[in-house]
Predict the structure.
Amino acid sequence: MIALLAATPILVTVLVLVLGRPATWAAAAALVTAAAAALLAFRTPAGVLAASGADYAPLLAEVLLILLFGMILARLLEATGAMALLSRWLQDASTSVPAGTALVVFGVVPFAESVTGFGIGITVGIPILRRLGHRPAPAALLGLLGLTAVPWGALGPGTAVAASLTGLGLDELGVATAWVNALPVAVAVVAVAVLCGARRDPRAAVPVFAAGAVLWAGVLGANILVGTPPAGVLGSLSVILVLLLSARLRGARLRGTRRTVLAAVPYLVLTCGLLAAEALAGLLDAVWLDVLASPPVWLLAACLVAVPAAPGPVDGPAVVARAARAWVPVGVATGLFMMLGWLMTATGMSAAIGAALAVLGNAPGPLLLALGGIVAGSNTGANAMFAGTVASMAESTGASVLGLVAVGNAAAAFANIATPPRVALAVQVGAGDEAPADGGEDTADGCRTDPAAQRAELERAVVRVQRATVLCVLAATVPLAVLAALL
């Protein structure tokens, strides 16, 4: 009975989302339910809650700032034409469709996602995939499969939340997650190879398998040598550099113009600044260096140079205002989910759920977090809801808390590809000019398009891509659950 009461906030979250209400509503309803459950059966001394909240508040603020500045940076780079310019340059550097696809799926999409988050990577990568010759639905699926570095997306706030709620070190959780993330990457590699025609021509799989291996090794190495926040950026950059070097050796011309260099300046500021600050913070013990090494600082710096370095004209204040308005629902939902996770962990609700599920072993851990990834639509939200529960489950069974939380973190992150709104967005981006327009449009032969037929086709494409993403998530989550059972 106690475990069921503790699980009520989660059940309320799922119910509200199933009814089609926004994530903000779901998070708010769950938080209110959790507060009521805490007052009924999980009363905790105010001093304990205050101390726990004081420790958690800086992380909450950091995550919200990462999301805000990441969204502003993405909007600025889109408005200035920097994203389009860099995308065209990378497309021109591709020597074949499979090589270009591997570059986008395991390089461009993870890089954009690691810098900005929110699934922005698919909006950058899918148009390039379309230009490479992929049809709308396969291009959408390929773009979604590029979200294999989500544990480090937006410089890793989701992993930071999991580490905070479970008492683990951020870098140790990042390294452990990187090891087990080999399974989601392997699933993505196989799916991308099939979509690139590897069944007809096995040679098409070569650049795909190479890119997947470089991404996994690059992210793992960056976690070990540098730290978790920039690991996704460095891992995906390693893919881009390796494939561009391979293209150059094959005779591709990789000439960049002054405008191309200007388009890359915000990325260079973010990457180099964060790495330098991390190095200084590791050498010297000073509070100001810890602040300087915080991801929001360098995201803000990248935003500040984005307009002066823009390859084209842009109304910076207007773009920032639009980005801030778009951030509000995302930030509110994320903040509420984080508060929900903190409250459930601090009051012992997560421990009660974990103890109840422990009779089933550790296998439900990754499944629970994968469900959270689909429902919440973010790794941060999934970990806020379930990381504490999974840690309690590991403690009840005597398993490794680090191992089980890492497996769950990887499962939750990869499950983001099957979030229905993200799938719909990917298909819409993939459809591009083929998306339905109100009233229809005149075609080249003077005929009128049928918006209803276009919408029906778009809906069918969403269903096909949704099914494919769910199958990919299952293909990764089931082995992760087996691995969890062996811990």
